[in-house]
Design a protein that fits this description.
Layout (H helix, E strand, L loop, with lengths): L12 H9 L23 E6 L9 H10 L4 E6 L5 H11 L3 E6 L12 H21 L3 E4 L11 H22 L2 E5 L16 H11 L10 E6 L9 H8 L3 E6 L1 E3 L3 E3 L8 H11 L5 E5 L6 H15 L2
Parallel strand pairs: 1-2, 1-10, 2-3, 3-4, 4-5, 5-6, 6-7, 7-10
Antiparallel strand pairs: 8-9
Helix pairs in contact: 2-3, 4-5, 6-7, 7-8
């Protein structure tokens, strides 16, 4: 697996103090700006879907075959999920469709930031299981939401401290299994600028990711699973991509608009030409996974999603 670029800035005491100063106020919604398309740079991406986007009445093998037949390069599973590891491997082998990683599907409730240490311990164990599942399936990542700001017992600083403690405890297992822990940017109140344009919150996420590994040699084990649509509500995803740069290892793809909320890919307010330019400038490795995270369906719907990914990311 490719490591982050050398010379990444180290988190400082000033960045921690900045956290406390920025923990109050309201989120700013930026108006949509329309630009001319920047010069086109072809992106070398691999497209995937989440397993939950496939029809529930199909067997796992049938789901894998459908995704492959619709032109996708891979699929992402949950951990835990409804299938044994043997069933997943059988579906993978029969279809020829790789599983590129898993989503820690209990991270919202068994939060690494939860006030109850017993809940946090269960969250750490779930993360360990997700690492082992990803490795067993042949994947190389676990998507993790590290916590949620809920009030005095789960503040920005407490989410930072508790989640880092939990993630650090599993890094030896992650290295043993060649699996990265990838932090997703979501609507959880964490790593936002609350006193101005939240594009600047990308600096907080950057500093948080850099703070997780206690040892320099573990920096390749942690990164960003950047969700393009999640921050269109609050700011410009292209600016987050530029700030995070090579810390980004995978992309979730969806769209959002101020008028309609969640939108079909290409029909919201995401400025896709600018996003493509930012991805190209970030220097992501060839073959970086871009996984749709939208409402799924049968063959017609999956073919439409595949075509939309192509239009917005590889026109």
């Amino acid at each position: 697996m490719e490591s982050p670029a050398p010379g990444l800035p180290s988190p400082s005491a000033s960045s921690r103090r900045r956290w406390l100063r920025q923990a109050a106020g309201g989120l700013a919604v930026l108006p949509l700006a329309r630009f001319q398309d920047p010069p086109h740079r072809p992106l070398n991406l691999r497209f995937a879907v989440k397993v939950g986007m496939t029809p529930g009445d199909l067997s796992l093998e049938e789901r894998f075959r459908l995704v492959r037949d619709c032109g996708f390069d891979g699929i992402e599973l949950d951990s835990p999920n409804a299938w044994t590891r043997e069933e997943v491997l059988a579906a993978r082998e029969a279809s020829g469709l790789p599983v590129h990683g898993v989503v820690d599907s209990v991270h919202w409730n068994q939060r690494l930031s939860h006030p109850d240490p017993e809940v946090r311990a269960r969250g750490v164990q779930a993360l360990r299981t997700a690492i082992e599942d990803a490795a067993a399936y042949g994947g190389d990542s676990v998507l993790l939401v590290p916590g949620r700001v809920t009030g005095p017992e789960e503040t920005q600083e407490l989410v930072w401290e508790r989640s880092i403690e939990g993630i650090r405890s599993v890094l030896p297992l992650a290295r043993e299994n060649a699996v990265r822990i990838l932090i997703e940017n979501v609507w959880n109140g964490f790593c936002y600028r609350h006193d101005g344009p939240s594009d600047q919150g990308a600096e907080l996420l950057r500093d948080y990711i850099d703070a997780i590994p206690a040892r320099a040699e573990d920096r390749d084990l942690v990164g960003s699973y950047f969700d393009i649509g999640n921050h269109r509500k609050y700011g410009r995803p292209e600016e987050w991509i530029r700030t995070l740069g090579r810390r980004i290892h995978k992309l979730d793809v969806k769209d959002w608009g101020r008028e309609q909320g969640w939108a079909r890919i290409g029909e919201g307010d995401v400025d896709w030409p600018r996003v493509r330019e930012a991805i190209a400038a970030a220097g992501l490795p060839a073959g970086t996974w871009a996984t749709a995270e939208v409402a799924g369906g049968g063959r017609e719907r999956l073919l439409d999603i595949r075509a939309r990914l192509e239009r917005v990311l590889r026109p």
